[in-house]
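User: Here's a protein and a ligand (S-adenosylmethionine). What would the complex look like?
Assistant: Let me lay out the input and then the predicted complex.
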Amino acid sequence: MDIGTGDGRFVYQMCQKNPEKFYIGIDPAQEPLQKISEKIYRNKKHGGVDNALFIKASVENLPDELTDIADEVHVHFPWGSLLGAMLSGEAASLGQLRKICKKESLLELITSVDPGRDFTQMEKQKIAIPNDEIVLNFLVENYRKSGFEIREYGFFDSGNWPNICSSWAAKLKISGKRQLFYLISQAI
Ligand SMILES: C[S@@+](CC[C@H](N)C(=O)[O-])C[C@H]1O[C@@H](n2cnc3c(N)ncnc32)[C@H](O)[C@@H]1O
């Protein structure tokens, strides 16, 4: 499951790479998804895939039909209230994510917030740049309250990012001195 899927590139590429698995991309904005959500219906020879589904929804209100079905949930370069929820460990949205997760499934957050360029968004979402103190004193507890145990987190300096299948990774990588933050938690 890819929450805040954007243009759906991650879902599409994963579908091609792992045809035996099924991928669902979710986003409240449908326009960026137009290209890929049309492409999936093509003949397989022309880039079609039969293991993808895109749903228009927000993390705050995920369809009940998705309850307890996800083996993995990805949140890559979230923005707006999705970013706020993930970096604060907000209970209502994390509760929605826990709802769709099978027990022991993994929730992966990858994000990059720039204190200069993203200042307005940080103020609006009431979040700070993630660091060890925030994770250990704050996120560990908030994620646990919502049914997720943080298993791993870390940072990559600018110029040292791993390859990530995301259109936004490509954009952010070249724009400035952004640090990458990742957090992997497990549904308990
Ligand atoms: C910067 S884009 C990242 C898109 C994609 N994950 C990527 O890596 O290319 C952030 C996405 O988060 C979505 N988003 C914002 N608020 C959301 C919410 N409350 N629930 C789900 N998605 C949300 C936006 O519509 C947007 O597509």
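Summary: Residues 3-6, 27-29, 58-60, 76-82, 166-168 surround S-adenosylmethionine (CB under 6 Å).
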